[in-house]
Amino acid sequence: MSGSSSEFVIETHALSKRYGRKLALDRLDLKIPRGRIHAIVGANGAGKSTLFRILLGFLPPSAGEARILGRDSQQLTSADRGRIGFVNEEHTLPGWLKVGAVIAMQRHHYAQRWNQNAFDEVIGHYHVLPEQKVGQLSRGERAGFNIALALAQRPELLVLDEPTLGLDVVAKRAFLESLMYSQAVESCTVIYCSHQMEEIERVADNLIILERGQLKHVSAPEDFCARVSLWVADVPFKGPELSKVPGLLQVQRLDGLHHYLVLDQDEEFGDFLRAAGARSVQSMPVSLDRAVNGFLAKNHAAPASAIATT
Ligand SMILES: Nc1ncnc2c1ncn2[C@@H]1O[C@H](COP(=O)(O)OP(=O)(O)OP(=O)(O)O)[C@@H](O)[C@H]1O
Q1: What's the DSSP call for residue 299?
Q2: Ligand 1 — pocket residues by CB below 6 A?
Q3: Which end of the chain is more exposed for a tag (fewer CB within 10 A), N or C?
Q4: pLDDT of res. 52
Q5: Ligand 1, from 23, 50, 52: best to mutate by most atoms within 8 Å of Cβ?
Q6: Pair type for strands 189-193 and 37-41
Q7: pLDDT tens digit string along 89-120?
Q8: Minimum CA distance residue for ligand 1 atom 16
Q9: Domain ranges of the chain
Q10: For 223-306, CATH number?
Q11: Which 8-state DSSP code applies to residue 255?
Q12: Nearest to 38 by CA among 1, 83, 4, 8
């Protein structure tokens, strides 16, 4: 199969990774179609970085298969790697090199592929000078420099592993804008891993939720939000027994009212609360942050199989 004709940029089949007694990826079947921005989210330790390391060929799987741009991830050639841009939170560039020297090296390395316009467009958001050493750049500038270099290599696939970790609000915004408004992004597929839901809400077309190395949900972010709702009810005493509350993700008691965060419930949930004695019931939508974090917190507290969601 030719890489560029493949319909999916990422395809894993029964992919598992075990570190000693720890199962980081658990028979993961994941298909990410070509084009657009895909966000991968999951709690700490869900297996996101492990997945990226296997996909980029830095780590072998324990079992199963991983393909990237149509190629087996364990057999990537340097030409295949040239089609993939990777930016991670560490922004690992040699600190002693001058910015101008790094640019010259990359331009030479990527030769025909190098897209100077894409580089200029992104680096224009940052006050980075060619005579500065990479180690002298601020975290935000280094993140910007990295994304500019990655986009200039005209990648078919751009993998971003928590690229805004540790950046302040201004630097985060600059980074996201350089991503969202770059022409170069339009011609590639972006896989973005982050814990920042407000970022994901702004940039992602597709939301992929991993939990304990398994796939839990795939859809547009707004469709996931639509599955989660918050119900505020004036229920006397303790309210219904929690094990009987359908789709329950979280419950809180605030100012004498019960707040139920629930998954996949419709108007009948209001009837359930009224039958449990609620005097008033009000439902409201939630932000992506609340929806995802409620969902992940629930799965933390219960066995992974407690909610069947895929
Ligand atoms: N080299 C290793 N040796 C042993 N266990 C590891 C190793 N790398 C990762 N793990 C374990 O595998 C699991 C998945 O880790 P991974 O770094 O892939 O998660 P993550 O989703 O990227 O987490 P985070 O959001 O915290 O970065 C974790 O439980 C972690 O402790």
Answers
A1: H
A2: 19, 22, 24, 42, 44-50
A3: N
A4: 94
A5: 50
A6: parallel
A7: 766 778 899 999 999 999 999 888 899 988 99
A8: 47
A9: 3-219, 223-306
A10: 3.30.70
A11: T
A12: 8
State whether residue 36 is helix, strand or coil.
coil
Atom of ligand 1 nearest to the CA of 53: 18
Work out which ligand 1 atom sits closest to the CA atom of 49.
Answer: 22
Write down the residue that tokens 């990527």 correspond to.
110
Q: What is the DSSP letter of 98?
A: B
> In Å, how far from its chain's centre is CA 250?
23
Residue type, position 169, single letter: V
Q: What is the 3-state secondary structure (H, E, C) of 40-84?
A: EECCCCCCHHHHHHHHCCCCCCCEEEEEECCEEHHHCCHHHHHCE
Residue type for position 232 = V
For residue 248, give both structure tokens.
């329950």
Distance 214 CA to ligand 1 centre (A): 13
Report the CATH architecture of 3-219: 3-Layer(aba) Sandwich (3.40)
ipTM tops 0.90: yes
Flag the least confident range among 16-25, 143-152, 169-178: 169-178
